[in-house]
Structures are given as structure tokens and as C-alpha cells.
Amino acid sequence: MQGDGAGRPIGEAELRQELERLSPFHHDIALPYGLRTDMADLSGGGEQHTRVQTLVQHGFPALLDVFGGSLDGLGVLDVACNCGGFSFAAADRGASRVLGFDIVPRYVEQAELIRRALGLEQTEFRLMSIDDVTPESAGTFDVTLCFGILYHLEDPIGAMRRLAEVTTSAMLVDTNITRVRFAHQPLWRMNFPPPPSASRGRTGEWRSERPVVQFSPTAEAVEALLRFLGFARVDRLPASGGDLEKRYREGTRATFLAVR
To answer: Which of 219, 231, 148, 227 is nearest to 189 (CA)?
Structure first.
């Protein structure tokens, strides 16, 4: 949504038209005129439409406690931001600068539309890869949100090192984890995902057509990696709360708070 319309308010008819053009959305975000991104035929469905609400309820309280209850005046980096749900949640909690980035042009366009509709000028969205994140290209941030990307990475150590280099205080990491029976060591499982689905509604839209390898960590591997990257305190958040997805309680998904 860059260009002529980026600086002016958006009307209801135009917003409806743009929501339809850019659908489906994978985050449920309330918009002006009683509209939402999660409306009939606009949502990706499944767990995605409750993702922002449940993860904010699960992960943000511990993060906010680190900073005295809010993100007032802080800079936040949102990695693989999709349509920006977590970026807007950070802005709503006082962040003064939020940068979200993704490698899918449509996701960035969706985020720009929502940014314009909500008038959140402290948010910015870029088409960018983790490989391009440096203090020079992106700046530094008090907080980095790293949700749903670690287990997709071909070079998780290098990628997370780049994110750590721009993070001055805390990182919140939400990731699939691998369970290894009777093993309590930092291990990584090699995974060869199939080619991306042709369905436009899948969150795997970003996947490359070329063969890739990904590395899925155990919980111990996530904790060891974050300590290796210089975070003095690493906590795995408890899988509590009735609205939390079953995979957290089953131990195949977890959220980690790392603090300098």
C-alpha cells in the first residue's frame, strides 16, 4: 500500500475492496468500520485466525514484565511478520518503533494496508530476508519477536546470530520443537519439506520451489542456542491457559523468553 494512498485515511468501500483483493489473511485484526481481516472468505482459517490473540495472551505478559508492564518507548523487530498482527500488538502496548519484515510481497502489502487503516505511524514493513538483517540495514531493537520461523531455517545458528546482533534487551521465540524420548541434549532434527502447496491460502506461501533442508530443534537446543547468543536468562514459558493450542500442552510447540 505504498504510493499515493499511503498518507491519507482509507474509506470503508476502499478498505473492503482491498481486503477482498489481498485475502486470505492469516492474522485476525480488528479494523475501522466494524471490519476485520478475519471475515468470511478472507481468513486463512484453522489455527491462524486465533494465532495473534492466543500467542499475545501466552507470551506477552512475561515479556512486558521485563520492561515494567509495557513496551513504552521501545523498539521492536517482528521477524517473518506475515500481515503484521504481532507488530500491531506491540504498537498497541506502547512501542515507539516497530519494524516488521517478511519475504512474501503479499504479506507486506497486507501489513501496509492494515497499518494505513489503523493509522499506526510507528510501524514500518519491509520486504526483507533474515540474511539481510544487520544493525546498518535495520537498526537495533530493544525487543525481537521471532515467531514461527526458527524451525524453517536452513542455517538457524547464523540467522539467529544476525537477529541477536540487533537485539539489545530481549527476544521472544515461539517455535515448533522436536521431542526425543529419553534424550535431554540440544539436538536438531533434519527435515526435508515437500514443495510448497499451490494453495494461495497457506502460510507456506513463502516456501521456495527449490529443494530445502530445515532444522527442527529440541527445547534444550533452543535454550542452548539463546545462551550461546549472549542471553543471560532463558525461560521456557509454561503451557498453561485454556485457549492455548493443544500442541503446546503436547510439547511439540513452545515459547521461550531470552533476556540479556
So the answer is: 219
